[in-house]
Amino acid sequence: MPQPDSIIAPAIILSEPQLGENIGAAARAMANFGLSDLRLVRPRDGWPNHKAESMAAGAADILAGVQIFATVEDAVAELHYVLATTARDRSMPKTIVTPGEGAARLKRALSEGKASAVLFGGERSGLTNHEIALADEIISIPTAGFSSLNLGQAVMLVAYEWFKAGDATPSETIDHGGGLPVPREELFRLFEHLEGELEKGGFLHPPGTRPGTIRNLRSLLHRARLSDQEVKTLRGVIVALTKGKKRDAMPESEEK
Predict the structure, then answer these.
(1) Backbone angles phi, psi at 110, to 5 degrees
(2) Interatomic CA distance for residues 123 and 17, integer angstroms
(3) I want to staple 159 with a disulfide (CB 3.0 to 4.6 A). Which of 33, 79, 174, 180 is the partner?
(4) What is the CATH number of the domain that holds 24?
(5) How big is the chain by its Cα radius of gyration, in Å?
(6) What are φ and ψ of residue 115, in 5° steps?
(7) What confidence tens digit (pLDDT) does each residue in 85-121 have?
(8) Are 105 and 137 spatial neighbours (Cβ–Cβ below 8 Å)?
(9) Domain-embedded: residue 175
(10) Residue 31 in 3-state DSSP?
């Protein structure tokens, strides 16, 4: 897990980018404004990409360090705080902030030792609801009416706001009671554990309600800003509750 003094800036994650030119433009914007951690999820044309290299003038080091992931879950696994970008109202119970406010929240996360990222969708359709559900909050870029931005432009706007926010950190931090903020990977395990037991218990039926219910539960847990110890405690609670139900369901003659 990254230590507080090693976290200097958020990662930029591009999910299913289609055009190498846009990846290059994103890398160039990152170089302009002090960002260096670029992660790609299933780039359409594979990697490396010569069109990205041509477009990224001056950002060769960023492209050389690109990490490739099979899923967004993998790309955010060790992170503690993630902002997703979308222009559409997804009717999700998540806080929506401007790029400026998003930058301030990223700075706050940094001051608390949290590894963070901003997640961008591909050019064709942006992020899916499932991908947005993996984030803590949403960045929405205000526009004059036409809300569709080029991927490289969107990265530049967010990177600029991060740079403009400077190095000031807030005087207050979140008290995790001595525990560390939980990385995404452990939070995903909590989701899977809880959802698996709810599935067995019939809570996620009928099937048509399942996706919405899961998104609501995940949003609720994201908003709690759980520490690693709190996640362990919740998983212990789930185990205790499900063991108790199984014991109560056993015929008296089978109890030991």
Answers:
(1) -60, -45
(2) 6
(3) 33
(4) 3.40.1280.10
(5) 20
(6) -75, 130
(7) 987 666 678 899 999 999 999 999 988 889 999 999 9
(8) yes
(9) no
(10) helix
